[in-house]
């Protein structure tokens, strides 16, 4: 069985299933360097067994250096490092890899979320150098994988379709509790409910647009369910139609809240939360990626008019909400759920990651397509 060493800042709860399934196929050692701080920042840390690395950071953590000695051990066939040019130790390991028989896989978004509109046409030169020195790449989603395959057609580069733990349970949950019963249970009276589920730790989520939407929609007809905490969280107490539940890690309660909701609404910085919302059968409502509204790579999972709507500005969004029937939202929610079932299972993510492992360890130089 091949032996893999993998580096991540920490293991969040949504990544645990990926590591557990990967460890069923390979001997897997996960090394982390930022678990304590990430827990303080509101992440739910998984109990998955890991080994801590000593780390030094520079320039407000833009650059880090971690202990590379564990990865020099001859017991590892593959080391999986983060595709991040600020990781100085990764550069050193890539250089040393030129003189060893180990295989190095890099994984990540493959693009800067903040500089996305520029880098999708002109990829980062630093990432280009890192990828050139590596043996294979795990990219989160297909648009970015396609970008890098054009530049490195003979390198195993595959979109592993970034997803979250627990989707099978959500998709297979056949418990049917009437929405009216759940609304009464949680004291929610509005006819149409939009749900927001993300940490309030990032100004790029465009919380200003969330607040404006709440303020401008009819507060008797439209309710908002808020899941999440964080330093940037606004005071929702002045809005009678906002139902704020804070951070929710109880899956039963979260399932019930999503059961009440008709629409998943996150104005910006759409990430993995969109996958969970789609699994719950919720259509996605957000704003178009622009210089002012950044979106993470999982934005790719939204098909405008199929499983949600992507709006250009607040006026179009308000008009969309006011003139779209619950029947249409429900149909798009069903489409969202089908996309998750067909494309975004954890088993599929592991399968695709394993394809790259097998390619680099068998000296296959042909690129891996979808």
Question: Nutshell version of this structure?
Answer:
By secondary structure, the chain is of the alpha/beta class. It is 35% helix and 18% strand.
Your description of this structure?
Helix content is 35%, strand content 18%. By secondary structure, the chain is an alpha/beta fold. Helix 9 links the parallel strand 10 and strand 11 (222-227).
Secondary structure layout:
Blueprint: E1 3-8, H1 16-23, E2 27-32, H2 35-40, E3 51-52, E4 55-58, E5 63-66, E6 78-82, H3 88-97, E7 103-108, H4 116-119, H5 125-133, E8 136-139, H6 142-151, E9 157-159, H7 167-171, H8 179-186, E10 192-197, H9 207-216, E11 222-227, E12 242-244, H10 251-260, E13 263-265, H11 273-279, E14 284-287, E15 308-311, H12 314-323, H13 326-343, H14 346-361
Parallel strand pairs: 1-2, 1-6, 2-3, 6-7, 7-8, 8-9, 10-11, 10-13, 11-12, 13-14, 14-15
Antiparallel strand pairs: 4-5
Helix pairs in contact: 1-14, 8-10, 11-13
Radius of gyration: 21 Å
**What's the CATH architecture name of the largest domain?**
3-Layer(aba) Sandwich
CATH fold node name of the largest domain: Rossmann fold
Give the terminus-to-terminus CA distance.
25 Å
CATH class of the largest domain: Alpha Beta
Helix run count: 14
The description of the largest β-sheet is: 7 strands, parallel
Lateral arrangement of strands in the main beta sheet: 3-2-1-6-7-8-9
């Amino acid at each position: 069985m091949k032996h893999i060493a993998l580096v991540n800042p920490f293991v969040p709860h949504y990544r645990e299933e990926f590591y557990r399934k990967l460890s069923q196929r390979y001997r897997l050692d996960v090394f982390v360097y930022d678990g304590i701080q990430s827990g303080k920042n509101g992440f739910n840390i998984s109990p998955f067994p890991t080994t801590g690395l000593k780390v030094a950071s520079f320039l407000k953590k833009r650059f880090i250096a971690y202990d590379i000695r564990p990865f020099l051990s001859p017991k590892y066939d593959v080391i999986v490092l983060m595709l991040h040019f600020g990781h100085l130790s990764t550069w050193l390991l890539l250089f040393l890899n030129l003189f060893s028989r180990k295989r190095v896989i890099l994984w990540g978004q493959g693009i800067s979320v903040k500089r996305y509109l520029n880098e999708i046409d002109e990829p980062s030169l630093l990432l280009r150098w890192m990828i050139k020195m590596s043996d294979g790449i795990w990219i989160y989603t297909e648009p970015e994988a396609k970008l890098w395959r054009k530049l490195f057609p003979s390198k195993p580069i595959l979109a592993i379709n970034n997803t979250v733990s627990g989707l099978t349970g959500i998709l297979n949950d056949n418990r049917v509790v009437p929405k009216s019963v759940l609304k009464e249970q949680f004291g929610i009276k509005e006819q149409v409910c939009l749900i927001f589920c993300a940490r309030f730790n990032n100004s790029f989520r465009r919380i200003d647009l969330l607040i404006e939407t709440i303020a401008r929609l009819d507060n008797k007809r439209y309710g908002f369910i808020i899941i999440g905490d964080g330093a940037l969280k606004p005071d929702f107490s002045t809005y009678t139609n906002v139902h704020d539940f804070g951070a929710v890690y109880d899956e039963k309660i979260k399932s019930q809240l999503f059961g009440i909701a008709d629409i998943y609404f996150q104005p910006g910085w759409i990430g993995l939360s969109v996958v969970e919302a789609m699994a719950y059968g919720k259509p996605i409502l957000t704003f178009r990626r622009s210089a002012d509204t950044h979106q993470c790579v999982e934005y790719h999972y939204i098909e405008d008019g199929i499983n949600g709507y992507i709006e250009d500005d607040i006026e179009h969004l308000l008009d969309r909400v006011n003139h779209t029937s619950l029947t249409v939202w429900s149909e798009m929610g069903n489409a969202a759920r089908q996309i998750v079932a067909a494309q975004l299972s954890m088993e599929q993510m592991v399968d695709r990651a394993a394809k790259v492992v097998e390619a680099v360890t068998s000296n296959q130089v042909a690129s891996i397509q979808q």
